[in-house]
Design a protein that fits this description.
Mean pLDDT: 92
CATH class of the largest domain: Alpha Beta
CATH superfamily of the largest domain: Phosphofructokinase domain
Strand order of the largest sheet: 3-2-1-4-5-10-11
Radius of gyration: 24 Å
Number of domains: 2
Helix content: 40-55%
Length: 410
């Protein structure tokens, strides 16, 4: 029987999913393998009748530059009981599967190791190689290499954010814009920087103080007042959804929103509009201060996940897909495919990036100390400083409370 591989996708989509799948398929088909694409993520491996597609070259060629994911994705995470009662061992034996390729986040990667261990214990050893993806760019790859999908999402986000900023300028009003990013502000900061937003709020900025709703509102108001002083009565505030993730339970209650949680214990931020919530709060504060600024909310969420990949990700994801075959040929298993800044394909193991004590992967945040970040904060963003107190006192009675650096305790 011809040797085969199986590919599955887990978590949420990111631009370049199909590029990875198509590139893996083309490479393995060229080298004599049968390629199975499994729908439903891990759920398919714990089903009597897995839903899969035989991917041939023509199919791979038709999907590699498309957005979204041809393979239906799932956040399903199997339990110990699932392995004992529902695992479909025959699927691997009947199809002579030699390699499991997973595309997703760290949860998807760790489950792949569990699958490989189970198969080994049941006399069907396979290799497993993971391709890490997230538009959040928060996986700590060496040398600050981006995760695939991030550059495409940032590019589309910047296009939309620029249009929003043009609306603000045209209409003489302000927008509160929220961008995805569960625990890190890469996407929000990248989009806000590209569109020259006068205020960007990301969780990393609260490195010396606790994140509260009041502080987030004050940062937005600080920018509005600063621009009023400058004679500019329009603008936009970019806020990372990650600040919501970092709020305490008491602070979340103040927002008036009750969150549901996904299978991995993460709040399902996509079910609520953070932009609407913050816009309402900023609008309320503006009214209390007696200012006349108009505030409008815009959410940048699912619009960024299933778009066609940019040229950067088309090339990057192609290299990652081919890299899977290279690592497999070298006998590597239980690893992620990683391509360094020189284009070298290397295996990256979960143990290399996990916390040695907790075993968890700590997210990679925005480096506030970097010159590129400080350049935006110090030269593009607008906010009140001590030198503005006199002018700001003509608009509000307590300008020191809206001092950018004092709010953040910098």
């Amino acid at each position: 029987m011809k040797k085969s591989i199986v590919i599955l996708t887990g978590g949420g989509p990111a631009p370049g999913m199909n590029t990875v799948v198509g590139s893996i398929a083309k490479t393995f088909i060229t080298n004599g393998f049968r390629v199975l694409g499994l729908h439903g993520g891990y759920k398919g491996l714990f089903s009597e009748n897995p839903n899969f597609t035989d991917i041939d070259f023509l199919m791979a060629d038709s999907i590699f530059n498309r957005g979204g994911s041809y393979l239906v994705m799932s956040r399903y995470k199997p339990t110990k009981d699932d392995f004992e009662q529902n695992f479909n061992l025959d699927f691997f034996k009947d199809n002579n599967i030699q390699l499991l390729v997973t595309i997703g986040g760290d949860d998807t990667a760790s489950t792949a190791n569990r699958v490989a261990k189970y198969l080994s214990e049941h006399n069907h050893s396979i290799s497993n190689i993971h391709v890490p993806k997230t538009i959040d760019n928060d996986l700590p790859l060496p040398l600050q290499r981006p995760t695939f999908g991030y550059e495409s999402a940032k590019s589309e986000g910047a296009r939309l954010a620029t249009t929003i900023y043009e609306d603000a300028r045209t209409s003489n009003n302000w927008f509160v814009v929220c961008a995805m990013g569960r625990s890190a502000g890469h996407l929000a900061f990248g989009i806000g920087s590209a569109a020259h937003y006068p205020m960007i709020v990301i969780p990393e900025m609260f490195n010396k103080t606790t994140i509260t709703i009041d502080k987030i509102v004050k940062l937005a108001v600080s920018s509005i007042i600063k621009r009023e002083i400058l004679g500019i009565n329009y603008g936009a505030v970019m806020i990372s959804e990650g600040v919501f993730h970092e709020l305490s339970d008491d602070e979340l209650k103040k927002s008036g929103v009750t969150f549901s949680y996904d299978d991995h214990g993460h709040p399902e931020l996509g079910k609520v509009s953070k932009a609407h919530i913050f816009s309402e709060m900023v609008d309320r504060r503006i009214a209390e201060l007696g200012l006349k600024t108009k505030i409008r909310p815009v959410e940048l969420g699912y619009e960024l996940r299933c778009q066609s990949p940019s040229a950067y990700d088309l090339v990057y994801c192609t290299e990652l897909g081919i890299g899977v075959h290279q690592l497999f040929s070298e006998g590597k298993t239980g690893c992620m495919v990683y391509i360094d800044h020189l284009g070298k394909v290397k295996p990256l193991y979960l143990a290399d990036i996990q916390d040695p004590v907790t075993g968890k992967i700590n997210p990679r945040g925005v480096s506030l100390e970097s010159d590129r970040v400080q350049a935006v904060i110090n030269n593009i963003m607008h906010y009140i400083t001590e030198s503005d107190y006199s002018a700001a006192s003509k608009l509000i009675s307590n300008p020191q409370e809206y001092d950018f650096r004092k709010i953040l305790n910098w």
